[in-house]
Write a structure and sequence with these properties.
By secondary structure, the protein is α+β, with helices and mostly antiparallel strands. It is built from nine helices and six strands, in the order H-E-H-E-H-E-E-H-E-H-H-E-H-H-H. It folds into two domains: 197 residues, Multidrug efflux transporter AcrB transmembrane domain (Multidrug efflux transporter AcrB transmembrane fold, Up-down Bundle); 78 residues, 2-Layer Sandwich (Alpha-Beta Plaits). The radius of gyration is 25 Å and the shape is elongated.
Length: 307
């Protein structure tokens, strides 16, 4: 369908969807304050055990053995080769921190007598707290730099609208992780930072088209102008989102436990980011009373050559 034929009135739903966005953000903030995030071992500290077997190790069986012994929250993954396994477990009140690694090794050795212990390391909660604080700082810094870029790339109104959309996406994704108590570790943090870049890119495509429409059309109604711009970018937005989601769904089903949380965060993020690039950005622009004067190119000043 050509852009001349497509004339979907996306802006007709902007007000109820704007209220939905506000509700989602408020609920997400309440969840983050009351329930918090289910922080993984990267942030809370714990013990890392590396073991080696003369044969390939089945991760599913290892997880089952650990769960039966009371370590159901252990993170298990191959470590360089299928014969080596890295296990991370959270601290337990019933086991001394300096002994928990050997307890885990004894559990695994009971099912595989040829298992060899390569390494046991304990990471205290203080390191996790520092990592959590530095991760939050990195996220805020990324959002701030994005705002500066958009501010200079377009105008101050677009800068505000785009950054509000970015905050909206991050808070809603974190709120869902809080609601469902999905584990939040460094892999998920990487997904959130990737989401910031994805959402910004999508918002810039829409913003660029809106700016061109304000400058080139004879239409004076901002609602009609923005609606036309969204129609023109919709094919690109859908194609980009669908191709990204195909990769993420493949990672979710075939990437193993390590990539599951990463793909979950980005699947939700892509859906929320696609929505926000249309309805959150445009609603903020309407609130700031965007009009054609915001996009006028200033006339170059003529120099008076008279001495």
């Amino acid at each position: 369908m050509s852009k001349e034929e497509r004339n979907i009135n996306f802006m007709a739903a902007r007000k109820p969807l704007g209220m939905l966005s506000i509700a989602l953000v408020v609920i997400s903030v309440i969840l983050l304050v009351t329930r918090g995030l289910n922080l993984g071992l990267d942030f809370t500290g714990g013990t890392t055990i590396v073991v080696k077997s003369p044969v390939d190790v089945e991760l599913s069986q290892t997880r089952a053995d650990l769960a039966e012994a009371g370590f159901g929250d252990a993170v298990v993954q191959h470590y360089g080769s299928p014969k080596e396994v890295n296990i991370r477990v959270a601290p337990k009140d019933s086991v001394d921190a300096d002994k928990i690694g050997y307890v885990v090794f004894d559990v695994l050795k009971a099912g595989n007598g040829d298992l060899e212990l390569l390494k046991v390391e304990f990471v205290g909660p203080q390191v996790g707290d520092e990592l959590r604080d530095e991760s939050g700082t990195a996220m805020l810094l990324a959002l701030g730099l994005m705002m500066l870029y958009v501010w200079f790339r377009f105008s101050n109104k677009f800068g505000v609208a785009t950054v509000v959309a970015l905050f909206h996406d991050v808070i809603v994704v974190l709120g869902l992780f809080s609601l469902l108590q999905w584990p939040f570790d460094l892999t998920v943090l990487a997904a959130v930072l990737a989401l910031i870049g994805y959402s910004l890119n999508d918002s810039i495509v829409v913003a660029d088209r809106i700016r061109d429409e304000f400058r080139n059309t004879r239409e004076t109604d901002p609602v009609a102008i923005i609606n036309g711009a969204v129609n023109q970018t919709m094919t690109r937005t859908i194609n980009t989102s669908l191709t990204t989601l195909l990769v993420l769904v493949a990672l979710f089903f075939f990437g193993g436990e390590v990539m599951k949380a990463f793909s979950e965060a980005l699947i939700v993020g892509v859906l929320v980011g696609t929505y926000s690039s249309i309805y959150v950005v445009t609603n903020i622009l309407f609130m700031m009373k965007v009009d054609k004067e915001d996009f006028l190119i200033p006339e170059p000043e003529e120099l008076d050559e008279t001495p």
